[in-house]
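Following up on my earlier message about zinc ion. Here are the inputs again, as you asked, copied directly from the submission form:
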Amino acid sequence: MEEIRVKLVRTVDESYPIVIGHGATACVSDLANRDGLASRRIAIITDTTVEKLAAGALAEDLRLTGRDVRVIAFPAGEKNKTRQTKEAIEDQLIAAGFGRDTLVIALGGGVVTDLAGFVAATYTRGVPYLSVSTTLLGAADASVGGKTAVDTPAATNLIGAFHQPVAVVIDLDRWLTLSDSQIREGLGETVKQACLADAEFFAALEDAFVTRGLTPAEFVRDDALTVLTARRNCEIKRDFVASDVHEGNRRMGLNLGHTIGRALESALGYTLSHGYCVAIGLALQARWGATFGYVSSGDVARLERLLGAIGLPYRLPEGVDVSRIMDAMWHDKKGTTNTIRFVFQRGVGDLMVFDCGRYARPVQESAIRAFLESQVAAGQ
Ligand SMILES: NC(=O)c1ccc[n+]([C@@H]2O[C@H](COP(=O)([O-])OP(=O)(O)OC[C@H]3O[C@@H](n4cnc5c(N)ncnc54)[C@H](O)[C@@H]3O)[C@@H](O)[C@H]2O)c1
Ligand SMILES: [Zn+2]
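Thanks, got it. Here's what our run produced:
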């Protein structure tokens, strides 16, 4: 036998800028000219809703600088974040003669940036993509971290790749056309980031929603608060991701509220949106954490008050089936382990760190079930 060793040690710099501001889309053509991107043909990948709101102006702006630009739009909605949509986009790129010199611009919410980012990750074995996020949820969560994916009937985000964008643009003017429930969804993820990393940011959100009683529509018109929200969300996510790019340990912290939240979302047949389920998951981990002494009852009350003031739920919906939540929780592990691990917050603005510096601790299935059943009973 002979064995030849192929030694490949990769050191890559995947740093990128995040530009945040009102009217920030105006920066896209400058960003698309940096770092050797200037000679690339541009494919703006978007959904049909955002196409009407923003694609035309962006394409015109880029064409003014002499760029060859094509807009490819797929029907809006999570149900279209599929391999089939990815294939259809790839076929359009091929038919239009796009090659290795492509720059993808993902223009939209998390569905678009996940899908277009994944197209970019594999098209001709990988082309650069620039992410232009148009939802609060996208700004809060989906645009930083380099996770790209599509859903399958078996599980969401099951097929995908880590592919970092060359730049992220968050145009706060885009939030003005979001519905109240879309804003609340993004705020659910925002409260999560504040809970796990920033007590001052949490207090600023309390001031806005509990003390001043802002509505979602008033929130998106508050310039200082929207800048703070986009900036802190991105910084918090960046800090976690940069320290743990491929989700070994610390990045798990970002799953705060998600173990129950995602399982609930699935148990309810996706009838309650992700951000709302995360809000419930957040409140549950805090109440559960209080029984272990991780969080005070005062902190639990603050969290419930903030979620309630935003208009987010913080209790399990009536009649929810705990067995279905448990099944979904196991399913969500995607076969990786035979234990369920939970992330818990420590007070407001910090995370519990367990043995050997781990951010998630294993919990017995019977203990999770008993806790969830106690919460169903308490909600009635
Ligand atoms: N990659 C990650 O790390 C990550 C993190 C969190 C969430 N996600 C993914 O993000 C997705 C959810 O994100 P989302 O809520 O932004 O979904 P989305 O992209 O489907 O946007 C929600 C809806 O809002 C519309 N829309 C987008 N921008 C708008 C605007 N400015 N005004 C009015 N309507 C607008 C869209 O057309 C869509 O109908 C999920 O697929 C989730 O898996 C990814
Ligand atoms: Zn989430």
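One observation from looking it over: The radius of gyration is 21 Å. Hope that helps, and feel free to reply on this thread.
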